[in-house]
Design brief:
17% strand, 210 residues
Length: 210
């Protein structure tokens, strides 16, 4: 196995030491490990984010394989366990806290812990709204990067990142959803996930505009 210093040096070669040190010192939470959150988590791991807090209560089933970052061997496993194992294969020196628990209004702030940035990647619009409202109301510094509108087969060019406030960003087309009778397709969901991961990276490196 590679030593921590070897992985760090390789990341510095790609990102520069100045940028990599900022990424290494970052604390990011991912709320939901489905089509959005699983791909976001992998992208953040490849960036060398120092601390990842992964939150989900579900297990992998066969339908997840076709748009989420899981494999047949993971069916039946908790998504938190599978994602933690995958990240260890990329960079075993990232601090990964995996929390197998459902996010509720009562526990949301506790579950987000000391994360500076939260990637909202929940399935239901009611859950999304609850998480966003609770964080915006009960914290002063936490930044949310959320996903909204990635269903169907419309052009990927409609997936955008929008800055709503200094602490709230939304990625997606803002309109397409399962409620419209659309399906979730792997390419478009992954596009939205990469918008989220990219915005997290940019915020951490001081680029806060959309």
């Amino acid at each position: 196995m590679l030593e921590a210093a070897e992985i760090y040096e390789a990341l510095c070669q790609r990102h520069t030491k100045e940028k990599q040190d900022k990424l290494k010192n970052a604390r990011v939470a991912v709320a939901g490990l489905g089509g959005l959150g699983s791909h976001v988590s992998i992208a953040l791991a490849r960036l060398g984010i120092g601390s990842l807090r992964l939150i989900d209560y579900d297990v992998v089933d066969i339908t997840n394989i076709f748009r989420q970052s899981y494999y047949l061997q993971h069916i039946g496993q908790y998504k938190t366990d599978s994602m933690k194992a995958q990240i260890a294969e990329i960079n075993p020196y990232i601090k990964v806290e995996s929390i197998t628990e459902k996010i509720t209004q009562e526990n949301v702030m506790e579950l987000m812990g000391e994360a500076d940035i939260i990637c909202e990647a929940l399935d239901r619009k009611e859950s999304k709204a609850m998480l966003i409202n609770e964080i915006m109301e009960h914290s002063r510094n936490k930044i949310i990067v959320s996903g909204n509108g990635m269903a169907g087969m419309d052009s990927g060019n409609r997936i955008l990142t929008r800055k709503v406030t200094d602490r709230f960003y939304v990625c997606g087309d803002g309109v397409s959803s399962l409620e419209d009778g659309l399906q979730l397709m792997a390419p478009r969901v992954a596009l939205c996930a990469m918008h989220e991961a990219n915005m997290v990276m940019r915020i951490l490196l001081g680029e806060t505009e959309e």
